[in-house]
Amino acid sequence: MIYPTRLAVIGAVAGAPLALALAVALPGRWQLALLWPIALLLLVLADALLGAARATAELALPRSAAIGAPLDVPVIVGIAGQRPPRRVEVALSPDPLVATEDDGRIGVALLGGEGIGALTLTPVRRGTAAFRDLWLRWTGPLGLVWHQRRLAGERRLAILPDIQAIQDRGAQLFQRHALQGLVAQADRGDGTDFHALVEFRAGMDRRAIDWKQSARFHKLHAKEFHSERNSQIVFAIDAGRQMSEPVAGMPRVDRAVIGALLCGWVALKLGDRIALSAFDARPRISSGFIGGAAAFPELQHLAATIDYSNEETNYTFALTTLAARLTRRSMIVLFTEFTDLTSADFLVRAVARLMKKHLILIVVLRDEELETIVDRAPETPADVTRAVTAAALLRDRLLVLTRLRHLGAHVIESEHDRVGDRLVHGYIDLKRRNLL
After folding, report:
1. Residue 156 to residue 62: CA distance in whole angstroms
2. Model confidence, pTM
């Protein structure tokens, strides 16, 4: 695209009065008044031809970025032509998940037609940012024409929660349980997986004695067990309308993702295998199982693809589809939220079907807003009405959670800022009790 610069417009406007004055002064030679616009037009055409060039640009985006952490992204620009410009302006198409300085515009100095600049991007919400267009423009040698190029492409940036904070907190929890003897040990003498055949010692369980091997060695020998590893854990995250509502300034689904990543980091360190699932009205994300601490970045990038939704959650469709994919007993960690008994009834029925084969752990956030309304002393009749309504909603919520517990599901109702810690504690407890 080519269009005139401000200098060309000012030149055209400044010449108009002179041309008009010349036409009035010399009506018989009015053709002379056309010399100025014709000359300016020729200069503009010459500038357009001299400044024509082939433009390339590369935006060196990293694989991921943390929410709230400013990111300097290099932009490598190349202008190939007879007279390459000394400076080029770069603009990046906006994305609602990322804030940019100066509306995503920077100037890049060129030397021999090549240069490098830096765009400052600040992720503001989790998800996958897409920058579809990168714009370049430069002026010709005379400064009368802008040359503009649009470089289309799929430039994506995965925006994740603060991974460093998750890993630091996970390391603290891992170390805490190790000091308590729940992680660092091989859980010898506890569990269901055979570990070794050892000589029987005082204090060992006599039921673990292997009588055949004892007869062979003419000494009592016992089987030593340890906690089962390589368990399958599925983090199923409800991304429906209710989970997109904010709690203390952050959507519930984001808090669920942070909790899942924190527990997933610990689980991978303990040798279990992790899968991620997200759904609203239908399943949206369904990953395979990954194992090993080195696989944690893959879990991060899967979590970045979980989008916000305004659709109602379909528990029956989502959980039935999930159960059909699982070929062996697994632990399903379900992050969800419900406000009415109708949707909660579908949740209870879906969980009841899963309970026949799998271990279910349901994580919900405490509704601190309703609890505050109930605990606050009423001052007006409207406060009394609100308190009664809030108490009824909390009573329905307690009824649903009680029904889930009676089915055999494990339920964690956590504060919004402690969901990760509570989930890790619950997971370690279930693992120590050999329920996985």
Report:
1. 9
2. 0.71
